[in-house]
Request: fold
Amino acid sequence: MKNYKNIIYALCGLSFCSVVGGAIYEHLNIVPQWVKAPPASLAMLQGEYGAKLEVFWMNIHPIALLLFAITSILFWKSPRRRHILIPFAIYLLVLLITSVYFVPELMAIFETPYATTIDPSLVERAHLWESLSHIRLLFIAIAAVYLPLGLTKPEKKAAE
Reply:
């Protein structure tokens, strides 16, 4: 039962990598489609049969945050702490920025009524959102690589 802490740490890493994986998937498959020609290209996300991307995000973020908090507590006095807290801080900062800019801007774009025409100003906003979102993704991807490196560190400090 001694290894339960490592299992929690691994689950934390898995949940955070799920966040990154979901973001990569969206940036490779979903975002390039809807930014092409809004509002016409928004049909894939609107209406009764539109993709409900928020279902994934509203479930994975609380899980990842909870596991980060538990892992931080479990390894607070460990050499691994830095490898947990730095990604956790980056994740929290990204979530804050996401809630202040990315989600409101995304909702404003997505709530544009469907039309078969293309709105150049909406295309410009969508491309800006996409470009800034790539930067956001880069930060969490780097954090996701750094997090599991803590598992290579000893759980306890060496005796002096």
Observations:
- The chain has a mean pLDDT of 94.
- The longest helix spans residues 4-34.
- The chain is about 70% helix and 0% strand.
